What we know:
Layout: H1 2-15, H2 20-31, H3 43-54, H4 70-103, H5 111-150
Helix pairs in contact: 1-2, 2-3
Amino acid sequence: xxxxxxxxxxxxxxxxxxxxxxxxxxxxxxxxxxxxxxxxxxxxxxxxxxxxxxxxxxxxxxxxxxxxxxxxxxxxxxxxxxxxxxxxxxxxxxxxxxxxxxxxxxxxxxxxxxxxxxxxxxxxxxxxxxxxxxxxxxxxxxxxxxxxxxxx
Length: 152
């Protein structure tokens, strides 16, 4: 009877489902001299657990704090800041050139030329708006068909 109980507890142990009391019972069983022949293979494992529990560590663990090399860290931070400032000035100079070029765009000295360009832009806008209105008419037709079918 006891052997069946030990085998069941051992199976639960390997499944990770045992309680602390059951594990204690297993340790006591395997530390006793009358262990069943087919369970002898588990005896060293449970014997090891009891040996390690009694062992005390006398080894000192050195506590060394790591000193960070602050000099290298500050040099690296300075380099990053200088690169950031250099990039900012380089990009702002480049943007200033583009701003001057953009301010010159779209200006006409001749009023007739400006009128033609404006009329051309408005005609293009009108064509695009007309295309949009045509597509809205399809939506109106769909809406009417839907209303006929579902009779609101």
